[in-house]
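chain below, 105 aa
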Amino acid sequence: MALSIISTLTGLVATIPGVPTVLTPMAGDFAQITGFSLLAVIMTQVIGFSTVIFPYQVGPLVVAMQLSKEPLSKLLKITLPLTAITVVVLMPLDFLWWQLLGWVS
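prediction:
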């Protein structure tokens, strides 16, 4: 959960395309610290960079909203609840799924 949250919060600062660029070089260290496999650590990054909190994190969303002449506040009404669902439901489900598959212990 912590690794996915780190990835999500990195997206706030570095935008979504920057998350793998910032975190992947540290994946080996994260794997050693957590005891997870390198693959599992990288998979937590995917959860993080697929979780969009604010529209500015993804350029195409901003462009699409501007082209459609819709305010970004309407998109925010979608991204915030989706983020909450991801953190509360999907992140724990991913961990349980990875445990079932034997990817994390």
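The chain has a mean pLDDT of 93. The helical segments are 2-14, 18-23, 27-34, 38-49, 59-67, 72-101.
thats it, cya
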